Amino acid sequence: MTAKKVMMWGIVVALAGLLASTAQAQLIKGFDITVIAPDGNPLKGASASLVDLSNELNHYEGQTDDHGEFMATGITYSTKGYKFTVEYKGAKAMRYILPGDKDLKADDSGQRKIMLTEINYLKVDLRKATAFQGVAKDAAGHPIVGAKVTGVDLDDETKSFNATTNNKGEYELNNLPFSGKGYKLALEQEGKQPYVKMLTIPQLGALKVDFDLGNKEEASAVAAGPSPAQEARDLYNLGDYEGALAKVGDALKENDEATKKPVLLIKAQCLDKLGRSADALAAFEEFNKAFPGDVEVVGVMARLAADAGDAKKADDYKKQYVAMGGKITAENYNKGVEALNAGKAKEAATLFEKAIQDDPKDADAHRELARCLAQTGDYAGAVSHLKTYLKMKPDAPDAGQWQAAIQALEPLANQKK
Asked: Where are the domains of the chain?
């Protein structure tokens, strides 16, 4: 389910929220993104947007404040991640924020429910438009004069930009638009094959790119372009899972043992990101057969088998996962969520108690246990667990709501004494 932002209408509403039966399986998420100008200082008044890549209708617009900060709160979990774009006086920067990104302080349990609870702090550099400068040299090390250098935007290959090398072999391509996928640079000489360099990473600011035809190793690798395996990885990192899958197919046709392991893993991860659970399970099983021993892969297979409704296979993989040293810390929490959503508050309370035993640092389990106890009339217990939740997460976005709920419950708890 999707968590909803709670409006604060005082103690009555706070208590009603506590007694409501729907548990928070996917929690509200927030971003605090600081935009840094080229001079290294925070940038005020830049236009910014955050787009949910799972559903681009979910987007958040605003401007950076006096501290260069853009705040976006009340955001639900995105299986594909987010795209952050900032613009200021013609300059533009873009940052893809993907699940598993090291900058995301997220608790991804690997189970069916994923909790994202923390405000995430990012810094994004806003620089001038992309630029490429460099020198072109022939096989003897002499400058190549009068050659055409073309830059093609891989986001939109109808866009190309040209320059000509001067008498020193130097060229400049300035004021190119930001490209999330990168650029293809080609050195073209009359009567010869173009010499191509692929820069398949998001390009920001100026980059020095030389063409050295005397470097045979570089010339051979660059002329051939990036391998399908590398392109698959680049596209996956950019969130283009369909494109990455297509490159995976090309890479597997090469039958290169050196790239087989990462390519098979990218294939499985792409299918999982696209929500194709059955295909993803088969792909992870293929990977596990070829490269056994990865405990995280076995944990993912357990989740996918459960999603596919194959309880026996899911249980078998869970047993393997635990035997390999994996810890399923969110299983009881997830079962508690399902029980509470079904109106089984007593059963859910038992499961949330087990979840706390599984992970004593799980503040959310204390909050959900408080909801269960309030519904079963144990107001003192509910107050105790809410206080524990707020002690563990004093800066939680919903802290005010639960403070108000405590105020509403304490008189009820005192009446029962």
From this structure: 22-125, 130-225, 239-292, 331-415
The pLDDT, as a whole number, for residue 61 is 85
Strands 211-212 and 130-137: parallel
pLDDT digits (tens, 9 = 90+) for 226-238: 678 878 887 776 6
Report the mean per-residue pLDDT for the chain: 75
Q: What is the mean pLDDT of residues 142-165?
A: 88
Count of alpha carbons within 13 Å of 413, Cβ hemisphere only? 17
| Residue 7 CB-density burial (10 A; 0-12 exposed, 13-18 middle, 19+ buried) | exposed
Buried b (16+ CB within 10 A) or exposed e, 231-265: bbbbbbbbbbbebbbebbeebbeeeeeebbebbbb
Q: Is the pLDDT of residue 14 over 70?
A: no
d(CA 169, CA 365) in angstroms, rounded, equals 65
Percentage of residues in the chain with pLDDT exceeding 90?
16
Q: Does 22-125 match 130-225 in CATH topology?
A: yes
Question: Does the pLDDT value for residue 5 go beyond 80?
Answer: no
Please name which of 106, 175, 84, 155 lies closest in space to residue 330, comparing C-alpha atoms. 106
Alpha helices in 291-362 (DSSP H): 295-307, 311-323, 331-341, 345-358
CATH superfamily, domain 331-415, is Tetratricopeptide repeat domain (1.25.40.10)
CATH hierarchy code of domain 22-125: 2.60.40.10
Q: Is the per-residue pLDDT at 312 higher than 70? A: yes
Per the DSSP assignment, residues forming a β-bridge with 160 are: 152
